[in-house]
């Protein structure tokens, strides 16, 4: 083993030790050292990486992703995940034995996209997964969440928190709960004329009326609270048109005339 | 010319295997001379025609015909000739004799044009693919691509575009598409630098196909959005582009745009391209379902497509009725077909449209219905169906799928009366978009009209034309020299 690689693996051992101790500051510091060493190392060599080098690199990024979840840094998660992804998808995956962490991390990424409401990317990632991958509990969890979310079965989304397949998922599930609350608020606003405070509190998942009032004040100041009821001000939709939109009509008619002239 | 005639006379009787009248070899020679004149006169149009004629001949190509043609078109004994003939099986001695005989008469006069050389590559490649000798096709196409990279002639571009296509096809048939991605990208770059628009168009499509083959939608979209776009040169390539674009947009949930691209692709595709149109229709059906539309029955009854579209027809039926159970059973029944079509994940997405349609039916039929009944009718199988039904209805109301209100205290859903649509601006918008569509269609049709060049002018005499061309060439030389001076 060449000295550089030895240095990397030693550093990585220290990193793992700190990781188990949950000493996140040391972890972050060691990680940035590791990353620069790794990148530099490969740049110098200019030859295809060996399998054990690949495995170490993949291991480092896998830990980096999990670390970013633990320190609750979504941007770092995205960055690290994109660095990790080639190790899963590209040609080297044929030579590399599959990682046990692969599906949990892919599922985690799906969950992140869901939380950030990036549904298009969610589906793009989903297309990359093979049929057996879709059967994996970690992936399935995220896929089912997305379905329930799209349908509007929010209860199912919330109850899914109890059945997380991996401890790291809890962070994103908590974030998801907040997204769900906003969704429920948006839906209730349109669907109900009014709700009793009790029902509203239960629906928006608050334990006390106080929290509910604060939420309403911050997010939906247009809602009215009267006689123990929350009253929603619903916008008047597509009222029968009283006025003729003359300017628009004139514009359209003129453009038809112009086009017709061109034809004749 | 006399030599050509002689050659034909010799070739026709010897070609007992494929003695269809007039012989393919004769055809090939005519095409070759078409390419020659095209190359000398720098008329791309002629070469396009040559390719079109070749495609007609495709089924009639035989090893003996090809090797005879190679000998007449290329310099025998040259590197290209020996390489290309090595791909062809020697069928019998009789043909060999003909080869040597013809080469003896041809060798001194011919010097092969790059266009002809590339054309020979193309012919051999098509032949190899038709014979299902894919590994040889791969090596042949790779050799031709290496040669192409060193050629920079506008008249080659048309032939090159076809070669790129078969290059990719030969790799796709052996399932090695990932291997040539880098090569295709560099070819695309070269084509862009040379302003070879047809080449760019073809290569972009091949790259998109390459990415989509591995479901790399992200990369495909990034390439597509950044590659230069211009007016389409070839209808076929444009159709393909639209189809890939439609697929990408479907995956990224831009259903309205996706539908437009897919339907346009299906409409523009030539009638003969049945497989392509079936694919377009499959995707279009799903996209329309995802949009909440129900495709008409005629879509599924198109000639030659009934069988292929059957699973999608049953799926549509399930969505139309809004029956979750039926939908599930259809999805399971045809799971293998959907997976091989790559539409499985899209069908998973459809589940929520089924619920929506069911809900819409309920809201139309009942003016007031309890949420428990809604849950029963939708067959929601969960631990707390009423609460689920309530939130699903709430979301449907917010998304505008149904027009209703919820009453939480009584636990029922109240449907609103549907208003008179003609009292709103809605019909006017609809008419406007239709008129705009028709006008646009007319404008595009006018733009697509083509006229033969210079047909309105007097016919130039041959002498005059030569003079003019000479002048043009001198001018070009001058310009080139000036360019050199600049450096």
TrEMBL record, chain A:
Keyword Cell membrane: no
GO biological process: proteasome-mediated ubiquitin-dependent protein catabolic process
Keyword Thylakoid on entry: no
One Gene Ontology CC term in the entry: proteasome regulatory particle, lid subcomplex
Chain ranges of the PCI domain: 75-248
Family label: Belongs to the proteasome subunit S14 family.
Position of the signal peptide: none
Keywords, sorted A to Z: Proteasome
Name of the protein in its database record: Regulatory particle non-ATPase 12A
PANTHER family found in the cross-reference section: 26S PROTEASOME NON-ATPASE REGULATORY SUBUNIT 8
UniProtKB/TrEMBL annotation, chain B:
Compositional bias annotation for Basic and acidic residues: 455-480
Keywords: Proteasome
Record keyword tRNA-binding present: no
A Gene Ontology term for the protein's cellular component: proteasome regulatory particle, lid subcomplex
Biological process according to GO: regulation of protein catabolic process; ubiquitin-dependent protein catabolic process
Family, similarity comment: Belongs to the proteasome subunit S3 family.
Role summary: Acts as a regulatory subunit of the 26 proteasome which is involved in the ATP-dependent degradation of ubiquitinated proteins.
Self-association state and partner proteins as the record states: The 26S proteasome is composed of a core protease, known as the 20S proteasome, capped at one or both ends by the 19S regulatory complex (RC). The RC is composed of at least 18 different subunits in two subcomplexes, the base and the lid, which form the portions proximal and distal to the 20S proteolytic core, respectively.
Protein name (record): Probable 26S proteasome non-ATPase regulatory subunit 3
Gene source species: Actinidia rufa
Taxonomic lineage: Eukaryota, Viridiplantae, Streptophyta, Embryophyta, Tracheophyta
